[in-house]
Amino acid sequence: MNNKATKALSSCIYLLAVGSIVAGTVSCKGHLFNKEAVISGVIRNLDDKQLLLLQEESDSADTISVKADGTFRYRFAVEGPSGTYLLYIPETSTPVYLYVRKGARIRIRFDANEPGQPPTLRGNVANECEIVRRMNEAFSGDDPEEIARMSFPEYRKKLMDEYTAVVKLLKKVKDRKFAESALKELTARRDYNLYCYRASYKLYVAPEGDVEDAMFWDFARNIDLNDIANARSGLTELVLVWDMQSAHIERSDLNVLKELARRVSNQEVLDCLSGECMYSALLNETAVESLEETYALFTRICRDTATLQDMEQAYESKITAIRKFGPGKELLDLEMEDRNGTKVNLSSLKGKVRYVDVWASWCGPCRYEMQFLEELAQRYEGDDRLEIVSLSIDTDREAWLQTAMPDRPGWKQYLATPQSRQVLEEEYSITAIPRFMLFDGHNRIIDIHAPSPSDEEEIDRMLQEWLGPDGNSTAKRQP
């Protein structure tokens, strides 16, 4: 799915969470055996002897070492409720979806030379793991161009066949609490994907029109915007966004909040979605006036005390950062060390547009983005107007050296000094990674919340806008 379509569809819930700037670990010491889960197995023909374990909605990742013979075993305490985990194999970009509860035993077999073949899972939660896998793969969003080539009845039959297959698996699960919860989420994901037909149709069939199929509108009219399950699946926001598009209302977090206040009455839904809108505005908004207006409306809609408190603190920090680090402002310099320990200042790269990737070796999502960063470097290989800077905030130099990509022309690896780590956290307000920043050739800020390399279309658009066609890295001038 291309990035334009992904944005247009409002996307599905992604398992990979943003990494925290403070390394997190899962400890198994001092816990009873029945509170533990064990993940083990064998992965053949793996050169990179490391795996990453991420928990859904968590802000950290754990590294699992693989022995020379391909075997691994990882035991950890399950302190909270059961949930979805992702075992990620960086070398082959293979995700292995897992369901983990206290006492779970999961055995995995995989051959890195056969990345097209899914891993084989065995153990006492094997059925649950298969259900989680199918829910994430079958209901994570099809290519919108493929959807647009089908009639709605054809697309609905495809989804219903997949839905029915997972329901049959659920009947084999002994844990009825899991089965009931999974069925609710499965139904919400099914309906989300069914509504995606409208987005595909408007993108590729009738940009100025809308779906003409009566079966689709029978389904759409029965969507309950006050159902919290629809809010959590993303369906409620998807309906609002595409109704706004049809009414020629600009899509923005502020306008989504206005539609939310107008069409939704369930306070639980209002709290959930207004918080998401405000979080999005804090990440993406760069104009003080727009952010102030969005925050004012958010505080009128949301009634959840914890959410209001969290957003108030984040809002104050963002307003301060915008005023200090808005587009056109002078960059606050950062001291960095290369592999040899030689100190280099970010400002010394003046004359080039700089795309800075702030990451760490322990951050799973950061390492996930590396494959896309490598593709970005390949696309701009030989273009001396651009310098890609991977800036690690690791405190363990050896861990950084072991995980950093090789240096190459136009893309260098650096380690932030202790002083720079403090500047990144306290001045640039980087409290979650990966984070990407863009600076122009005059040491001025373009965007300290630049698109990620996985958002290929958006980052290419921004880079091409600033690089210019004539070798002048400051082709676009700041006001």
From TrEMBL:
- Domain Thioredoxin, first and last residues per copy: 325-468
Q: Where in the cell is it found?
A: Cell envelope
Source domain of life: Bacteria
Keywords, comma-separated and alphabetical: Cytochrome c-type biogenesis, Disulfide bond, Redox-active center
Q: Does the keyword Membrane apply?
A: no
Disulfide bond recorded as keyword? yes
Pfam families noted in UniProt: DUF4369, Thioredoxin_8
> Which PANTHER family does the record associate with it?
THIOL:DISULFIDE INTERCHANGE PROTEIN DSBE
Report what the protein is called. Thioredoxin domain-containing protein
Which species is the source of this protein? Alistipes inops
